[in-house]
Amino acid sequence: MRKSRVLLDRDFTIGTTDPRLFGAFVEHLGRCIYGGLYEPGHPTADAQGFRQDVMALVRELAPTIMRYPGGNFVSGYRWEDGVGRQEARPHRLDYAWLSTEPNLFGTNEFIDWCRMAGIEPMLAVNLGTRGAEEAGRFIEYCNHPAGTELSDLRRAHGWDAPHGVRFWCLGNEMDGSWQTGAKTAEEYARVAVETAKVMRWVDPGIELAACGSSGRNMGSFGEWETTVLEHTFDYVEWISLHTYLNDYAQDTPAFLASPDLMDHFIEEVVAIADAVAARRRSRKRIMLSFDEWNVWYRTRRREENRTVPGWPVAPPILEEQYTMKDALAFGGMVISLLNHADRVRCACLAQLVNAIAPIMTETGGPAWRQTIFWPFAHMSNHGRGQVLRPLVESDAYSAAYHDPRGPNDPKIPLPEVPYLKVAAVHTGGHALSLFLLNRGLDQPTRVEVESRSFPGLRVAAAETLHDHDLDAANTRDAPDRIRPAPLREVAVRNQVLSATLPPASWTMLRLEPDS
Ligand code: AHR
Asked: Which domains does the chain have, with CATH numbers?
């Protein structure tokens, strides 16, 4: 059995988690909206067509902010199509996913759904085929109280009070060749600035996120962020980051090591943002919105998984079935986000239902939790507070991660990967939550956690996600094949917690004062 050691001290902190760190994303993509969270006629649907079985799982998952309506979809979206009488709304071709968009669900339905779920809405404006004028009109429709054509239109549509949406994304992945209306960094930055000006004139209380690169593996990564921030620095509060991890190479150790690349990515974007600030002698700090993150590969590259011929409505695309192994890599991403809570102040799991999602549904049938549901629910329900800076002693291994879009060499060397990846959150009072990923495939890890200045702790909860079959998944017929089980070998003595983590496992521990 491997041995590792973690030292925590309540005075060694990284930062306090922002509630927006625990967000997710719903796009007009496949069955995410239609047949996912919205399905009139479903046995659990309410009067507005919102599936209540999905809503119950969303509440359990506990996301805090929801990004909408895309994603790639937003780069061709006309927000006007999705408001007003449903019968009068147009059907349109969606170039992002080669589907037909019926527009039965639009901005007002999204806002209502968010309010019902107790989630903050985040909206993206189309900077692919549109620009400042349409974005200004959109925010006027949403946030202006009354007395203008568009605010009164919203009221006439039945939403008297303004929506008060605070967080807005200035487009999506505008560097991506797959984007409708892709742009160079200069082109994007110029339109982003002009759009930001107009949107803030309409509502000075908003926060704006500029698009970062579509991924660290884009050839333009770095240059893109620098150029975009040089232009937009005075106009935005946020820069976005996106990452999807893969196991194309079927190399589990490398796959489980790959969340560490997310740590590098975050630190690189922080360095670029702060370099732009330094050149201006500015104390302003641009915060990071990691507004797309997940594991995604089985349904990513092959055309037949991305699109269905014939422009169907809500085709079953990107319906990735997540395995035990995926949940582990996903858990590593959760830890990376928590450990950068000082600068990653917003993050959105992409996505929420059916399309690369923690929640799956059958249209007309049941809803169930995918394997990745669990690390997210652990983080969101137990990871809020002051993130501590853990000192970790663990054996390490080396790996080479396969990144097919890598600019030079598709193999990224990861020479020092600790078997144990850890985040620790002081959740208030003397309570602590620990999130532990054991990347060792062959043997358990005995971990000792010394938690200084947390006297008299007891184990309030110890849950582990583990299965001998790393390819096991949850399905309609076996929805609970992978779910957390109690971790038995765990105890606290004299401020030292000892636990035996099974090989290839994700564990959440809650420690509370023993009073
Ligand atoms: O989340 C799926 C897609 O991935 C999004 O639409 C896009 O922004 C990204 O490329």
From this structure: 2-10+388-513 (2.60.40.1180), 13-387 (3.20.20.80)
